[in-house]
Design goal:
- The structure holds 2 protein chains of 2 kinds.
- By secondary structure, chain A is of the alpha+beta class.
- The longest helix of chain A has 18 residues.
- In chain A, 5% of the residues are buried.
- In chain B, strand 8 and strand 9 form a beta hairpin.
- Chain B has one domain: Cytidine Deaminase, domain 2, CATH 3.40.140.
- By secondary structure, chain B is of the alpha+beta class.
- Chain B has 5 helices and 9 strands.
- In chain B, helix 4 crosses helix 5.
- The chains are: A alpha+beta, B alpha+beta.
- The interface between A and B is large, with 29 and 46 residues.
- Strand 1 of chain A pairs antiparallel with strand 7 of chain B, so a sheet runs across the interface.
Chain lengths: 58, 165
């Protein structure tokens, strides 16, 4: 971590061109969660596969 | 969308870790952009940094190449114990994308006690872009560089790939 020479409010500003309406209902939002914690079954499969491969290596 | 991120980030936030996501959208007929897709990559996080895991970028490319008309237009991350602002590392992250797309923005959600769940939507000013560009520290040189990767960006001319730090 380091600091830049300009004050933070000179480097960044609110992006006024963006408006996120979180209260609006009915809009479809897609969420792609690729984290292993989002798919515990896949997580188990991956662990089982790893264990199997380790067994083969032995 | 932000409410959804707060929910997805809860476990990390409880563990005092940042959570990272990418925001994709498509251009509407009236010329405005609609953010309608959130992608949470496989990632690592600490109390003051986060990044995508090695290998996760290929998955992102694969997923996004199947979503026509969608473009990477922003990113979102949480600050479990700080206010909603761009740290110097965040500024470098933002810089790389804003260089490619002037509309690119970053959302920071703060979970600091008195600011529970408040957020800011930020981008770099012209002065900020120059300042970060001239900075001798490059993102890759920092301890958060494990977030290196690539992601697909669909636009009118087809699929492009963009460097993700």
């Amino acid at each position: 971590m380091h600091e830049h020479p300009l004050p933070r409010d000179e480097i960044c500003e609110e992006a006024s061109h963006v408006f996120i309406d979180d209260k609006k209902r009915g809009d479809r939002m897609h969420c792609i969660d690729m984290r292993p914690s989002a798919n515990p079954i896949q997580q188990l499969k991956t662990k089982a596969k790893q264990a199997f491969l380790e067994t083969l290596e032995m | 969308m932000i409410a959804h991120v707060k929910m997805l980030a809860k476990r990390n936030t409880d563990d005092n870790k940042e959570t990272l996501g990418f925001i994709f959208g498509k251009k509407r007929k009236d010329g405005k952009w609609q953010c309608d897709t959130l992608c949470i990559p496989r990632q690592w996080g600490s109390n003051d940094s986060c990044g995508i895991e090695d290998g996760s970028e290929a998955e992102l490319v694969n997923k996004m190449s199947k979503m026509n008309e969608h473009t990477l237009i922003g990113w979102i991350h949480t600050h479990p114990q700080y206010d909603a602002f761009f740290s110097s590392t965040d500024q470098h992250f933002q810089f790389r994308y804003q260089q490619e797309n002037a509309l690119f923005f970053g959302v920071v959600v703060s979970f600091r006690l008195e600011k529970q769940g408040t957020h800011k939507i930020l981008h770099l000013t012209d002065n900020g872009m120059s300042c970060v560009n001239e900075c001798m520290y490059k993102y890759d040189d920092e301890d958060t560089s494990a977030g290196a990767g690539r992601v697909a960006n669909n636009n009118e001319s087809g699929i492009q790939s963009q460097r993700i730090l």
